[in-house]
Amino acid sequence: MGFFTGGKPRPSAPSAAAPKAGAAPHPARPGPASGPERETDLAARPGAAAWADAELSRRFAQVDMSHPLLAELAGWARTRLLREGQPDTGRTARNPSGTSADGGTATARSAAPRTDAPSLAALLARRPALTTPPEVVQRLSALVTSDDATPDDVARIIQHDTYLTAAVLRIANSPLHAPLVPVETVQRAVMMLGMRQILSLVTAASLMRLMTPRDVSARRTFWRHAACAATAARALAVACGGAEPGRAFVAGMLHDIGHLLLMGNLPDLATQISRRARQEAMPIQAAERQLLGYDHCDIGHRLLDAWRLGDAVAEAAATHHGPDARDWSDLGLYVHLGDGIAVALGYHMPGDELLRQPARGALDRLKLAPAAFSSLVGHVLADTEAMEQALFGDAAA
Question: Is 0.70 topped by the overall pTM?
Answer without folding.
Answer: yes
